[in-house]
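hey so i finally got around to running both of the ones u sent me last week. sorry it took forever, my laptop kept dying halfway thru and i had to restart like 3 times lol. anyway pasting them below in the order u listed, first the sequence line then the structure token line for each. didnt double check formatting much so if smth looks off just lmk and ill redo it

first one:
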Amino acid sequence: ITSESEYKKLEPHLKILELNNFSFNNQPTLKNINSKYRKLAKNHHPNRDGNEEIFKKIGESKNILNKYYEL
């Protein structure tokens, strides 16, 4: 991510994955994103009495962030 405005657009997704301790100058890595996703997905999985809506939001956010950070 090369601009602060681009980073700002991703902030809601970072917040969903509880990665809001990062900033434009200190961005998360793919490893950070995927690690946090696995932890949250495990906790919110519907088969483990988790919330399906939260589980879906977590997956969507991970997919969006992965697209930006793979480049």
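and the second one:
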Amino acid sequence: ALMAACRALQLQAVTALLSAGASVDAVDAAGCTLLHHLASSRPGVLPYSIAAAVARHLARLLLRRGAHVHA
């Protein structure tokens, strides 16, 4: 669920899932971490500048929660 929320840039969902104990170092079947997905996120329905700002905010949140940069 956290992986999907990150890919969709859903700030509230990511925050709630992290508060519920979701792992910041989750890895998908391809070996990509949450930070990988945020680094390559696409804006979807959001304007690019807003999507980029949300992705940066989520990445900082994950890093503050202990996500490993080199995972």
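quick thing i noticed on the 2nd:
The radius of gyration is 11 Å.
anyway thats it, ttyl
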